[in-house]
Amino acid sequence: MKIFITGGAGYIGSHTCVEFLNLDHDVVVYDNFCNSNYETLQRVESITHKTVTLVEGDIRDEDALCKAMVGCDAVIHFAGLKAVGESVEKPLEYYDNNVQGTLCLLRAMRTNNIKKLVFSSSATVYGNPQKLPLTEDHPLTTTNPYGQTKLMVEEILRDLYKSDSTWCVSILRYFNPIGAHESGLIGEDPKDMPNNLMPFIAQVAVGRRDYLSVYGDDYATPDGTGIRDYIHVVDLAQGHVKALESLVVPQYTVVNLGTGMGYSVLDMVKVFSEVSGKEIPYRIVPRREGDIASCYADPTLAKKTLGWQASRTFKQMCQDSWNFQSKNPHGLNV
Ligand code: NAD
Ligand code: WQD
Prior knowledge:
Layout: E1 2-6, H1 11-22, E2 26-31, H2 38-48, E3 53-56, H3 62-68, E4 74-77, H4 84-89, H5 91-111, E5 116-122, H6 145-163, E6 168-174, E7 176-178, H7 197-205, E8 212-215, E9 227-228, E10 230-232, H8 233-246, E11 251-257, E12 263-264, H9 265-276, E13 282-285, E14 294-295, H10 300-306, H11 314-327
Parallel strand pairs: 1-2, 1-4, 2-3, 4-5, 5-6, 6-11, 7-10, 8-13, 9-14
Antiparallel strand pairs: 9-12
Helix pairs in contact: 1-2, 1-8, 3-5, 5-6, 7-9, 7-11, 9-11
């Protein structure tokens, strides 16, 4: 198949390109590099010994999209802005990029009669969990503009499918992706101050930051720090392969991609410190606004409908993140 991957130069997108290329699919990456770089795609090519077709462009440019996707069979849509805090500061930019951009993409797909789509949604659409583990039928709500964009796109896709039931739509709600490709060539590479826990810890370990701020130790969890369902990015990428393979008949499917296991902030500090051999100094600071105590998936539906389940352990995730960070101490932008 020829697969059109928006945001394919980003963290999850680049790992997904590797999985599809390894299966001999053709990959067209469409990315504006607002949060990524060319080097990543070169590394994808050196891992796979395959060529990626790159079209540099913005998903809000419908004409450019229309031309770029000619001849493609399916779309995997990663492109978007993802920083929760920034979305509160700049809601219009987030709605424009993530919602308006997706509308352009869907129109371009319709023009080209491409009706297979895998969309990156997020566990953020569950809001503050009413019960754990989270199943796909949990009530949906959001607490910030980023989450709202994900929920809006899910609803747009549902309405699109209702209006034309020849579409094949798979919505994947990711939990917390971490880890890196085993080569250490690609991984999470934030351009500025990391927003998320793993890249922050990795930068402390490699000496780029002095200490980790732990956002609260008074949650109702065993050690008081927040619990999340961390999933290895390669498992996640393989979930996209399974999702696309499942789109052989028209559908609108929503599935969680998580492991079903929860680890706390201090669990990550401990395991990362063990695998890296580095001390991770940390300070307990007040809770971060909008954070929840615990969040983890019920991954049963993904196993049932996609035949997919995560296989990599939490320790492996930490090892692979450290492998990438230690081989690329300043990231890929230098
Ligand atoms: P990322 O920032 O590394 O990748 C996104 C890519 O999209 C980047 O290469 C960026 O340059 C590109 N992009 C952004 N806006 C664009 C535009 N208007 N036109 C073209 N390209 C554009 O992020 P990621 O972690 O790989 O996330 C991928 C997707 O998964 C996003 O939609 C994100 O919201 C979603 N998601 C991520 C997480 C996570 O924790 N990383 C969790 C749940 C969902
Ligand atoms: C994990 C835990 C923090 C940083 C976010 C988005 C979500 C999804 C994934 C896209 C929490 C604690 C963190 C730090 C800390 N993204 N923490 N010190 O908040 O679960 O999810 O990324 O869809 O939408 O909200 O992930 O990695 O930021 O935090 O103590 O410097 O680590 O409080 O308990 P989160 P995270």
